[in-house]
């Protein structure tokens, strides 16, 4: 860890020396908090060892807790007198086993018609030696620079460059130092009623010094639209990308297409309908047992009732996956259907959402550990200002699967909470 400590120390010294000349006349804020994170997954059958003398198939429950930590956090933020120009932040986080320090900057000046938007962050994570493993301690940094130039009353030309690096204290099977550099070039058209259409092309290159097989090139194009019309809102996003690894004969290379649409129509001040559609298609240049072409479609249709502080919606959810079949192994094609309910609440002191989906997934080709099941997926998030500058925010996700063969049941839980006080 010594190498990381020296590098990060130099960055801290530079950061401290940089502060005095720029902090005059700005606004300071401090935050202290206590948080808890929990991530656990439980299977009732080990899918990796089913036969032989050492088989684990007789074990009734295999539970893994990946994360179970209470942590403290102290953060500092500085904003210059012109809030659009400069912001500096630092966050210190501590758990029983992990020390984490994040330094962030943002800068948004305007020179004539040219708008400059800069964001950067340095993230240093160190693990106590007794519990340290390969890949646990690292330094991650990124910087993003975006330039925007209006070329007419309704259109803006923009370009973006992003650089990223990860440096591990010790390498492992799944932890490799890497550098990533990418850029975007796009055009945004502003329309009436705050609607906007954006189109851009992008290019990203990743370099992994210790494993050239993990180097890749990604390029493609994106288009998005967000608009208002009468009593409706429409949000559309489309992306086409090509990923090219540095491997012979196009191994692992693929083309991916994604289209997402969300539409909300208000029939009155109280009643509304909401539709969501997501299409994903992935095609490998050289398909094999692991890399199989597939297409997936998700759709939701809900009717809802909304008030000044509460919104409730309920309706059917469907999802379909079609995966290429091979002689060596059957595909995991499925069709699932269920009911999704959403509850959103918004008050000056409390904002939150609850999403619950209950249904059944039917597999077209059943096999060992691949059977129909009933599921329940639950997501909860809220931000509550308890008193003055004291707030509590939380995010919880859970998923349950119930199979006819109870040994195939599974559970997944994720909890993240923070109690913070601003000074």
Helix and strand arrangement:
Layout: H1 2-18, E1 27-43, E2 62-79, E3 86-94, E4 98-107, E5 110-111, E6 114-127, E7 138-150, E8 155-168, E9 178-190, E10 196-207, E11 216-229, E12 232-245, E13 254-266, E14 271-284, E15 294-306, E16 310-323, E17 334-347, E18 350-363, E19 373-387, E20 390-403, E21 410-422
Q: Using only CA atoms, what is the Rg? A: 25 Å
What characterizes the major β-sheet? Answer: 20 strands, antiparallel, barrel
Identify low-pLDDT runs.
Answer: 1-7, 44-61
Strand composition percent: over 45%
Distance between the termini: 34 Å
Q: How many beta strands in the DSSP annotation?
A: 21
The ordered H/E elements are HEEEEEEEEEEEEEEEEEEEEE
Mean pLDDT: 85
Query: What helical percentage do the residues reach?
Result: under 10%
Describe the global form: globular
Structural class: mainly beta
Q: Number of DSSP helices?
A: 1
